[in-house]
Amino acid sequence: MLGKTANGLFWMYRYLERAENTARLIETGQRIALTRSGSTDDEWRSIMQTAGVDGAYHAHHDTVTKDAAIDWMLRSKENGSSVRSCIEAARLNARMVRTALTHEVWEATNSAYMTARDLLARKVSERDLPGVLGDLRQRSALVRGATHGTMLRNDIYDFARIGTFLERADNTARILDVKYYVLLPSVMSVGSSIDNVQWETILRSVSARGGFRMEYGSHYEPRDIAHFLILDKRMPRSLAFCICKLRDNLGYLCTNYGARPPAFAKADHIERKFLSHDIDAIFDYGLHEYLQQILGLLSDLGGQIELDYRFYK
Amino acid sequence: MNTQDIFDEMWGTSETLRPPYADFKTWYDGEEPKRLRAKQREAEELFRLTGITFNVYGRAEAEERLIPFDIVPRIISGREWQKLGRGIEQRVRAINAFLHDIYHKQEIVRAGRIPEEMISRNAAFLPHMIGVTPPGGIYTHIVGIDLVRTGDDQFYVLEDNARTPSGVSYMLENRETMLRMFPELFSRNRVQPVQNYPSDLRRSLAACAPAVTGRKPTVAILTPGIYNSAYFEHAFLADQMGVELVEGHDLRVTDGRVAMRTTEGYKPIDVLYRRVDDDFLDPLNFNPDSALGVPGIMDVYRAGGITIANAPGTGIADDKAIYSYMPDIVEFYTGERPLLENVPTWRCSEEDSLAYVLDNLADLVVKEVHGSGGYGMLIGPTSSKKELAEFRKKLRARPGNYIAQPTLSLSTVPILGRSGLTPRHVDLRPFVLCSPERVHITPGGLTRVALEKGSLVVNSSQGGGTKDTWVLED
Predict the structure, then answer these.
(1) Using the 8-state DSSP alphabet, how is residue B191 labeled?
(2) Lowest mean pLDDT across A24-38, A92-106, A119-133, B299-313
(3) Residues paired with B194 in a beta bridge
(4) Hey, how many other C-beta atoms are within 10 angstroms of the C-beta on A300?
(5) First CA to last CA distance, chain B
(6) Where are the alpha helices (DSSP H) in B370-414?
(7) What is residue A187's predicted lDDT score, i.e. its pLDDT?
């Protein structure tokens, strides 16, 4: 496989994952705004922070309003992580690696792009927002489904998965880091309505509310939430799950190519050093410091993969 | 031009249904026009979804556009095709022999059949190729011969595309679309398949691999990149052939070979099907500003380390000024009378011809010698007085830059219009593969159709459309 192709696959799936994450964050923000009386436009500030797009937003806007925030995250061309920008970038990468994709995956990607282009051509009204987000989610699910159902399990698939899980791990770590303070054990305001909103926001942001309820019941306990999103290997967006998948897919590449480059060791190291403890040890270490470390290591791992598999040179 | 003289491929000139269209006609008469129009729209949706688009240069607003597709097939009988095939094969063999001769002994010049300056002063002549014999002796691995029809038994060659002919993906996708939409039509008619083209192409290219190749040759397609107007086709062919699609920056010269950067290191390429012009192929040997090519690839090529398809310098054979010598070329190298006719051509570089062209401009088509895609041409009969006057000035200023031909009454084939079948002018580009083993012509090709009533311009860049082209089993 060409290094360029590995690069294109990696980014195609990163962007698809990011588009989905951003769409989910918009849904979360909207949901909170509608159902919580105490919530203000301030909540959108933290939603944008979670998506990592607040800095650029402020460069283009003076104040944070619900409408402007939604538009920024959904359709803005200036925002490279807006849903529209991500889908466009995913499709551009897909065109570049067209020969590595099955017909089904390409068609699903192209049709996601065409749907997004039509739905996001104009500002989306509040009334249409749930429908539009639903359609977009469905379209990206089709790409995912076509990927699982039709792609050979070879190096092409491995790079697609590596892109997916690196993006997802990064996303979960960032959501946790923005909200880490509401998860810290504290005797103050435990179970207050403010905390409940925050905890719910976190769970919704990673589509984990249902899964959490199944495991822990309807009582939110910050320690449980942290455990669920960091260490639970059954939860498909937890750090442990994503990094385990990253290591597995890098491992398949090693077997396939008959060489074990540094990227594998780095993924293995993250898993051994950071995901084999219990949640109390993580709180003792300091949740924020822990998440910062993980974010740094993930970014380093991305760079190493790029080098090992000759994405650019 | 009198409409009565126009040959319609369904109705001839006398309103009697021609046999190849008999089954189609029966089928069509039993169809609801409304359903067919819905099918037409469905076809466009399919194309959009598959992403069969092309980029139009100089149009910022339409980044990717669809070539309009018409669902009425263009149908050719097996007998007609056999005859065409013989003519095409003869012509393609002559072109290869001509190229070999031009870059070696130039016997055709010595024999006085082509003036020396037509070669030495020709911008398409590539001095780097002098004395070079490509692996297998093949120069034009892939050729597209543009044909027009003017009567029941009358075909003309309009152009020989010997550099990098495009459009084959439309031939294949048009057929796929028709199969998907009208399977019943294909059970009524026995249509010769075109779907083997990608595997034929791969085999043909592999058969031209250089001697250094030990095992199964590695083939790759070189594209200028995602923004090129034909990128879809490059990706499509790479996909269908199961080969890598590379860009210049994926390649480099190592140990006397051209190698591509893979996830496991650099891997040598044996045959490079390049869709990049000669000029951009090698910044060390040609245009130094090119970022599309591979520095040093020409040196590897000359040393026999890689096959480049088509060979550099083949442009001299499809140059429009050389075109006018094609009857001589065919005769000179094959010793036979040409089976396919050339359109009578006036070379404006010759004084008498120029005078004739200036006097009769309103009846002629004038083309740039190195132009393509329908850009920069004049169609006399449909031009205004002002346009004619302006073109006269251009002709006088640079006569050598132009050739002129009579306006042929191109045949028509029906398209599905708002009120049923209605005739439109067409041309045909069959695709030919050459290897030391054989010359192979895919039965069918790309039919381009002028969608405007009466128009003769079929180029997709100028609003033309395409049709599926059927060659029937007799």
Answers:
(1) B
(2) A24-38
(3) none
(4) 13
(5) 34
(6) 385-397
(7) 47
Q: What is the CA A102 to chain-centroid distance, rounded? A: 24
B177 contacts in A (CB within 8 Å)? none
- For residue B421, what are the β-bridge partners? B416
Q: Who has greater pLDDT, A268 or A197?
A: A268
Q: What is the mean pLDDT of residues B180-200?
A: 93
pTM of the complete model: 0.88
pLDDT attached to residue A193? 63
Phi and psi at residue A194, to the nearest 5°: -60, -50
Mean pLDDT of B377-388: 89
Stretch 89-108 of chain A: residues touching chain B, C-beta under 8 Å: 92, 95-96, 98-99, 106-107
Distance CA B196, CA B241 (A): 10
Q: How far apart are the first and last CA of chain A?
A: 14
The answer to whether the CB atoms of B51 and A110 lie below 8 A apart is: yes
Q: What is the mean pLDDT of residues B24-47?
A: 91
pLDDT at A257 over 90: yes
Q: What is the pLDDT of residue B377?
A: 85
Higher-pLDDT residue of A250, A210: A250
Minimal CA separation from B433 to chain A, in Å: 23
The Cα–Cα gap between A97 and B239 comes to: 10
User: Which residues, 6 or more positions from B64, have their beta carbon under 8 angstroms from its beta carbon?
Assistant: B51, B53, B54, B55
Q: What pLDDT, on the 0 to 100 scale, is given for residue B61?
A: 40
**The amino acid at B412:** T
| Opening angle at CA B462, ends B310 and B74, nearest 5 | 75
Residue A6 structure tokens: 């590995």
- Residue in A closest to B238 by C-alpha: A99
With a CB cutoff of 8 Å and minimum separation 6, the contacts of B283 are B289, B290, B291, B293, B295
Q: What is the mean pLDDT of residues B392-409?
A: 91
Q: Mean pLDDT, to the nearest integer, of B446-469?
A: 87
CA atoms within 13 A on the CB side of B388: 16
B245 vs A310: CB contact, 8 Å cut-off? no
C-alpha A293/C-alpha A291 separation (Å) is 5
Q: Would you call B231 and A95 a contact, using CB atoms and an 8 Å cutoff?
A: yes
Instruction: Give me B304's structure tokens.
Output: 């026999």
Which strands, in side-by-side order, build the sheet including B244-246?
B244-246, B219-222, B271-274, B307-309
- pLDDT tens-place string over residues B8-33: 999 998 889 999 999 999 999 999 98
Q: Is the pLDDT of residue B64 over 80?
A: no
Specify the 3-state DSSP secondary structure of A187.
coil
User: Using the beta-carbon criterion (under 8 Å), do B250 and A92 form an inter-chain contact?
Assistant: no
Of B365, B341, B319, B367, the C-alpha closest to B161 is B319
Per-residue HEC secondary structure of B294-320 comes to CCCHHHHHHCCCCEEECCCCCHHHHCH
Cis peptide leading into A256, omega within 30 of 0? no
- Which positions in chain B touch A99 (Cβ < 8 Å)? 235, 238-239, 244-245
Beta carbons within 8 Å of B12's beta carbon, 6+ residues apart: B18, B152
Among candidate residues B219, B206, B204, B201, the one with its CA nearest the CA of residue B272: B219
Contact assessment for residue B435 and residue B89, using Cβ atoms and an 8 Å cutoff: no
Question: Is the Cα dihedral B270, B275, B277, B282 positive or negative?
Answer: negative
In terms of Cβ atoms closer than 10 Å to its own Cβ (0-12, 13-18, 19+), residue A68 is middle
Nearest alpha-carbon partner for A27 in A86, A83, A99? A83
